[in-house]
Amino acid sequence: MDGAPRPRRDEDGDHLVRSSIIGDLRQRRILSLLLDRDRPLTERELGLRLLERERGLTSADATEADLDPIRVDLHHRCLPQLEAVGWIERRPDGVVIDKRPSVEFAALSLSDLRTPEDPAWDAVSTLLVRPYRADVLALLADRGRDTGLPELVTALRERHAASPLPDDDRGLRVSLHHVDLPKLASTGLVAYDPPARTVTPTPRLPTFAARIDLEV
Fold first, then answer.
1. Band of residue 131 on the pLDDT scale cut at 50, 70, 90
2. Is 89 helix (H, G, I), strand (E, B) or coil?
3. Most CB atoms closer than 10 Å: which of 40, 95, 161, 177?
């Protein structure tokens, strides 16, 4: 690690950092590349493989000018983040997967990480930012119909969400209306009508819920 101190590792990970990683296509590509190797990859080798995936440049065609921006991003952003959540280890001979990458509620397999371009990862990233969003999706997938915001708040309280909710109903309504439901709508899994304050599951939601083993 070039003499740099190793970041402190939190065994539970930081869900915000994990969300940032999972929502970053380059980070997913790094994990995919490392999962397919039986030996460490140096930062240069990793950079060359990323360059080939992202721009179609082989190692024979790539120049140092092509490679340098990726190596800087690897060294100063990507690899420190991945190491901080315990997913990789940087050794003198290169970078290796340290332990199975995991994301709390989702039953995501190593084979999924080998398809980093899969758009489902962006939805998973959105859920990781605020894990109770998974409870929102589970409720909507189970109901399969339009749900008003007050009804959704009541249902979430009754569900005993696995992750903490805002303490009071007003705070939960505000968060859902201004942040959570618009963000979930951006994934295409639900449709949200802000004036009517009504949320509707889309046809994509049941498939996504089954794929990540979301408990409905």
1. confident
2. strand
3. 95
Contact yes or no for 85/79 (Cβ under 8 A) = no
187 burial via Cβ count (<10 Å: 0-12, 13-18, 19+)? buried
Residue type, 37: R
Lowest mean pLDDT among 84-93, 109-118, 169-178: 109-118
Residues 6+ apart with CB under 8 A from 22: 28, 103, 121, 124, 125, 128
From CA 35, how far away is CA 31, in angstroms rounded?
6
CB 173 within 8 A of CB 194: no
Q: pTM above 0.85?
A: no
Closest CA to 157 of 181, 174, 173: 173
The Cβ of residue 11 has, within 10 Å, a number of other Cβ atoms equal to: 7
Instruction: Say if residue 99's pLDDT is above 80.
Output: no
Per DSSP (E only), the strands in the chain are 88-91, 94-97, 147-148, 190-193, 198-201
Half-sphere exposure of 146 (CA within 13 A, CB side): 7
Question: Are 132 and 164 a contacting pair, CB within 8 Å?
Answer: yes
Determine the Cα–Cα distance for residues 47 and 42; give it in Å rounded to an integer: 8
Q: Which residue has the higher pLDDT, 38 or 2?
A: 38
Alpha carbon distance 40, 97 (integer Å): 8
Question: pLDDT tens, 44-97?
Answer: 999 999 999 999 999 999 999 999 999 999 999 999 999 998 899 999 999 998
